[in-house]
Amino acid sequence: MEELIKDLTQWVAIAVEVAAVLVIAYAGLEAGWRVLGVWIGRGGTVEVGIEHMRLRLARWLAVALEFTLAADILRTAVAPTWDDIGKLAAIAALRTVLNFFLQREIEAAARAEAHRDAAS
Asked: Which keywords fit this entry according to its UniProt record (predicted)?
């Protein structure tokens, strides 16, 4: 029974990582499409278009980071050696810091966008 739970957890972790890959792939495609739209000249100035694209990309990347952290937690839950726990702690700390700065960037861009909209 224990082996079945470990195997199931590994498969769920793989599925969660696949979800992260799909989120990143979608984010990249959407960002590329938006940049193409900016270059063609649809929808406002280049700076505003690029900033809007960066804001959306950052949001998607933050979601993908959460998925990858969840996969790491699943893997560590079934094989909790001190080495694995230490690696998870380091990975979680790095991702938390990265997510913190991504979130700050998102909030700053959202404030700038709201300020531009209010000024228009």
From this structure: Membrane, Transmembrane, Transmembrane helix
- For residue 102, what are the contacts with CB-CB under 8 A and spacing of at least 6? 58, 61, 62, 65
Whole-prediction pTM: 0.77
pLDDT at residue number 85: 85
| Joined tokens for residue 105 | 């960037």
Range of the domain at 48: 2-119
Which residues of the chain form beta strands (DSSP E)?
Answer: none
Token pair belonging to 55:
């804001």
Number of compact structural domains in the chain: 1
- Structure-model confidence comparison of residues 4 and 120, the more confident one: 4
Q: Is the dihedral of CA 46, 104, 108, 106 positive or negative?
A: positive
Sorted by sequence, the CB contacts under 8 Å of residue 24 that are 6+ apart come out as 60, 61, 64
20: amino acid identity, one letter: A
